[in-house]
Automatic annotation (TrEMBL):
It comes from Eubacterium plexicaudatum ASF492. Signal peptide: none annotated. Keywords: Membrane, Transmembrane, Transmembrane helix. The chain crosses the membrane at residues 6-28, 141-169, 210-231. It holds the Pfam family Zn_peptidase_2. This is Zn-dependent protease.
Amino acid sequence: MPYGYRYGYAIDPTYILVLIGALISMFASMRVKSTFHKYAKVRSRTNMTGAQAAQRVLNSAGIYDVTIRHVAGELTDHYDPRNKTLNLSDSVYGSTSVAAVGVAAHECGHAIQHHKGYSPLQLRSALVPVANLGSSAAWPLIILGILFGGAGSFVCKIGIVLFSAAVLFQIVTLPVEFNASARAVRILGDIGILSEQELPGTKKVLKAAALTYVAGAAAAILQLLRLVMLFGGRDRD
């Protein structure tokens, strides 16, 4: 029997990996929200909104074909390379805080990456279809493998391979996000949108945001490790 029993109930020790991943993700989410809310109260010296700062950052990089849009939600900001749109959330688009300016500039960093053909971004974009397939098909395949072939069956292993593609996507995302933040901080200082006194606050916001991607990657790796431990062994009855 692979797992121990206590008080008549099976205990799967690999659940500790899921728990660790969940705690890391929870901490990262709480950290980014608290840091953003703290610096969302600090108005930037130039009094530029997130949208205005984004437009200036893009123009300073020679980019004039990206449309800046207002989208609903909090911290739902993202750059879409498919239609070249920079989507800024309620708490960023019209806000003049150093937090909003920093997040807007970070998304501009992705637009600049796209404009310049940044290799890790191109790799991440190429992985999107495979990662989506892995995320949606991995667990159904693993369950089917267990039902018809047992844990460790070939079908289970295919599911694990597909899940690995989703994990790879998470890992490749890290340098893309770090680079976008570095570009944002540098440009905000170079073109005078934020002063030297304001930049540390923006850096803290972007570091907290980057932590969520690190947490996501860590949680995915732990989940993959759990799948390998449970279903990646030899076929067994």
